[in-house]
Amino acid sequence: MSMTGVQIYKFLPKTNCKICGFPTCLAFAMKVAQKSIAITECPDLSEESKMALESAARPPIQLVTMGADEKKIEVGGEVVMFRHEKTFHHPPGLVIRLKDSAPLEENLKRVETVAGYEVERVGMMFTADGFAIENDSGDGAAFAKLVAAVAETAPSPLVLMSSQPDAMKAALEKAGTLRPLVYAATADNWSDMTELAKAHGCPLAVAAGDGLENLAGLVEQVADKGIENIVLDPGGRDYLSSLTQLTQIRRLALKNNFRPMGYPVITFPGEGTSNTEDESMLAGQQVAKYAGIIVLDHFSPSIMYPLLTLRLNIYTDPQKPIQMQPGLYPIGNPKEDSPVCVTTNFSLTYFAVAGELESSAFPSWLMVCDTEGLSVLTAWAAGKFDAERIAKATKEFNITGSVNHQRLVIPGHLAVLRGELEEELSGWDILVGPREAVDLGTFLKKRWKG
Ligand code: SF4
Fold it and tell me: Considering only CA atoms, which residue is closest to atom 2 of ligand 1?
């Protein structure tokens, strides 16, 4: 949590010796609070003060990274309970579980399917984030073999799941530089698992399985051994216990600044449900509140796409909608006599309209007005999508330089602007398009004459 200059000042020697280059300790404290100078520039700081300041400067929820630099998952680091307070920054990683008890070929086929899955949403590409490999067979050699094969086939962030330190050691040696999450330190094995995580520079999951109190105790033991990158498994698996525990953990970390709970959480929605649909719904709940890594037992595009969409929505700044750059966009291969349709720069609206134009028989020009990322009706109601703005955009983007006509198709919801727009754009013919983008193709077929 950030400290104010006055809070930092309380830890300083208050001798105003000027060695740090500032005339007073208070001036120095203010600069430290602004993060323009490091606290270590004061040579007279006591060890206790240094430790207190460093500990206060740590985020309330540790940011934990797993995976190599080329492909990694960063989770935690959140500072608020609710996304209307401030953006959630680090979306949960969605990883697919593989069990070493299944035939290797079957697992590798699954890895290839998952690795080949890619979906576009509002101009961005999304994929699954990695794999959780479980030592379900209890055979350390089979576990290490699967880890090696996955690391070679699709090097991506991994969760290695075994309660046996020997099996974990062999698997970590095969994971190379992938820096997997070691799952998990328990009351029985925490000392060995801690040593392994430290030796390989990996984050470590801690699982107590019987309530947050025991989990906190175990986390403190692990942290005392020098592990900073910790992931919590509070043990709750069904809808209610998962929601309760994840909310309690977030509250304890943010509101009570309770360090042992200040880490991201791993969840296993497939273990609390009995079918694919339920697993997907529970995973959705955990995307919203407050998972860091979600291990899925099932994989299919029909599970992944809604989860990826939900995740995108939850982890987008609500005050800054995803926007397109305003401008004139060619859709298909438009010519001088092609239609010019008007829309807003809210990404979702843009892609809905562009998609329909693309699949219509009419290559078109799409004029995207700056509505500060608002959709058609919201922008109109807020006074950000009116005749004046559309007319201004028509001139700014030099529409007449691209087409040989003076006709615009405006969204059906803006029919009320037609007269005003014809006044603003003297000589232009304003066509009121359909209310829904899906009807654009039919509309152009009936009404557009090149
Ligand atoms: S060096 Fe330390 S004690 Fe001296 S003025 Fe700066 S902050 Fe104060």
Answer: 42
